[in-house]
Amino acid sequence: MHKLSVVIPCYNEEKTLAAVVAKVLSADTAGLELEVIIVDDCSSDGSAAIAQDLSHADPRLRVHSHATNQGKGAALRTGFAAASGDLVIVQDADQEYDPADYVKLLGPILDGTADVVYGSRFLERDATEVHFLLHGLANRFLTSLSNLMTGLKLTDMETCYKLVPKALLERLTITENRFGIEPEITAKLAHMLPKPRIVEVAISYVNRSYDDGKKIGWKDGISTIRCIFKFSLMR
């Protein structure tokens, strides 16, 4: 393993993007070379300009832009295709997830005890302690349903922090354009042969409200249920 690619999907995150990128660029990557790919999903604020300015200031950072807003899943497909690292991780641009956790996520892969690592917000805390009550209960339900359909024993299927080798990502045909990409990736990894070893490590997390710009909503929850069944049954 020589390089870590960090893919940052971005839509209207001008208030937080620069701070997140600064944390990513200064994160401990356990000696791996770092590559950062921002995918601007046709933001209507100043995010695209900020991303370009950041890329001009650091050669490790590249920007890809969508001409129309397509959703997080579509942005991740663009980022995954552009990634040149041995390992790929997603970093949301909203400061909920802390890049200081990268070194913990990398550990199990680098020491040979895992093929894929999920960063769990709930491994050491209940979902309702991390999220607002309804959000926490919904997340717990969706993860339990996903586990039932995949045979996994995850505590946080919906986590942004999924550290996956590029070689495995290239074997996944990802189709979801929005937040359904989370159960899609999980189901397709679970049913892959030979089965990759998926482990979880505890991560930190700071929840933000809809007033702060949170975008996932109840319709995405319904879509997630659909995706759990769709991608678990479609083998």
Automatic annotation (TrEMBL):
UniProt GO molecular function: transferase activity
Q: Which domain of life is it from?
A: Bacteria
Q: Which Pfam families match?
A: Glycos_transf_2
* Residues of the Glycosyltransferase 2-like domain: 5-172
Q: Which UniProt keywords apply?
A: Transferase
Q: What is this protein called?
A: Glycosyl transferase
Organism for this UniProt entry? Magnetovibrio blakemorei
